[in-house]
Design goal:
The chain contains 18 helices and eleven strands. By secondary structure, it is α+β, with helices and mostly antiparallel strands.
């Protein structure tokens, strides 16, 4: 490897893409193409980066399996950064095995890190943890160790383990300082801010307050009956009943919880469920049917009793009834949560992350676009969606991934 290639590689490792390009920008040999691609990725031009890295992979001969495998890993990282979550994981896995067989442990570990980060992005926390568990983090270079610790912290945040998240971020902070890469240091600092930003709202006894991640973790360990409006479940002491497929019943449960310890008038419940201001006997009969269904589903956790003016929620073994709500109430809150990370997402990647159809995602994006909440650029398959972050809230933690015990 010549001196310019070596110098460019060192510049990239130090987070200096412009310094790397100064050395290889005019070269078209395979190593230079690969380094140019990585530099363009660090500068945010993912389309150009992808083209260069794939050209490099073709330029390396069939006998240069290690170099080609490294190009595959770089291509996967570019896809991840550009939120192209549908790239073939089998190709990355094959590249990782090739690198391991040839003794390139660092790049093999990098491939495993990319795998774990992708699992985290689409909410597959168990798979992300299993991928990280195969790595000996203390043997990795500081930059890669920091990236892995950020994934560890992300998993802990989604599992509502604030203490574990802080420990992982502390290790990541040390690694980032040791690596000396400004962009990596900024990423760790941004993750720290998440722990000091509200992730949810608590509604109880007619009042409302914002909750940090530590507060949500403490709430889950409390003795209260929790109506979780982030996932449409009712839970108490590790036992839960899912109403995710019963939106009418969950609306009733939430209304009764927000009115607790008082009862809620029948007219208010009818207006909420049937969207009418002029109820008649048929609406009252339908309300009784829905209340009966809710009573059956909540029987292990609470009872719903009739009162002269309406219905009241009576917990069986809880000393408090609270509602855990999203930080921002929005029909398409899950979409906004992903888009608020500042990255440009495709509708196909959002559909994969939300485990829903791409058409449903497209409808939601069009609705948000019409109301000015998201923006798009590009056309066809190249179309990407972005949204500004919600000021004062961390929107990505409580919207898609399961709670402990789910």
């Amino acid at each position: 490897m010549d001196s310019l290639i070596t110098a460019a590689a060192r510049a990239l490792a130090a987070g200096d893409p412009l310094g790397a390009l100064k050395r290889v920008a005019l070269r078209d040999d395979a190593p230079a193409l690969a380094l140019r691609g990585i530099a363009m990725a660090q500068l945010g031009d993912f389309a150009k980066a992808k083209v260069l890295v794939r050209r490099a992979a073709r330029a390396f001969g069939s006998k240069e399996s290690i170099a080609r495998a490294r190009c595959v890993v770089a291509d996967a990282e570019i896809a991840l950064a550009s939120r192209d979550l549908g790239w073939p994981t089998e190709t990355l896995d094959a590249a990782r095995i090739t690198l391991e067989n040839h003794g390139d442990r660092t790049n093999a570990a990098h491939a495993r890190y990319l795998e774990s980060r992708r699992w985290l992005l689409i909410g597959r926390l168990d798979e992300a943890e299993r991928a990280l568990a195969t790595l000996a983090l203390d043997t990795l270079p500081p930059a890669l160790m920091t990236a892995c610790e950020l994934v560890t912290a992300g998993v802990a945040m989604h599992r509502l383990r604030a203490g574990d998240a802080r420990a992982a971020l502390s290790r990541a902070e040390c690694g980032a300082r040791l690596a000396g890469i400004p962009a990596l240091i900024a990423e760790v600092e941004s993750a720290w801010l998440t722990l000091d930003t509200p992730v949810a709202r608590l509604l109880a006894r007619g009042s409302e307050r914002n909750l940090l991640l530590d507060d949500v973790e403490a709430l889950m360990a409390s003795h209260g009956l929790i109506i979780d409006a982030c996932r449409n479940i009712v839970r108490h002491a590790g036992v839960f009943t899912s109403l995710a497929t019963r939106p009418v019943l969950f609306s009733l449960a939430r209304a009764l919880a927000e009115g607790w310890p008082a009862d809620v008038p029948r007219e208010a419940l009818i207006a909420l469920v049937f969207r009418t201001k002029h109820p008649d006997d048929s609406h009252r009969a339908r309300l009784r049917v829905e209340i009966g269904r809710l009573r059956d589903l909540l029987r292990p956790l609470a009872d719903v009793e009739a009162t002269p003016r309406g219905f009241i929620l009576i917990p069986r073994d809880a000393d408090e009834v609270v509602v855990l709500a999203r930080p921002v109430e929005e029909v398409h809150a899950s979409l906004l949560a992903f888009l608020a990370d500042g990255e440009a997402w495709s509708s196909s990647a959002l559909a994969l992350a939300l485990d829903t159809s791409q058409r449903n995602v497209q409808r939601g994006l069009e609705s948000l676009h019409a109301s000015g909440k998201v923006q798009s650029f590009g056309r066809g398959r190249a179309r990407r969606w972005i949204a500004p972050p919600m000021p004062g809230f961390t929107t990505s933690l409580l919207l898609t991934t399961p709670l402990p015990g789910d």
